[in-house]
Amino acid sequence: MGLDDKADNKxxxxxxxxxxxxxxxxxxxxxxxxGKTDQAKSNLKQAGEKIKDAFKG
Length: 57
Hints:
single chain; mainly alpha; elongated; CsbD
C-alpha cells in the first residue's frame, strides 16, 4: 500500500488515542473503550501493511 494508506492508519491511531484520552478525562467509559478499539483496528491495519511490504521486497 502507499504512503497515503499508512498516513491514514496513523491518523486513525492518533484519533483513537484522542478519544481514549477524552473518555478518561470525562469519565466516559464508552468513549474510552471506543478509542481503544479504534487504536487496535489501526494497529492491525498497520501490521497488514508491514506484511505486504515485506513480501514486496
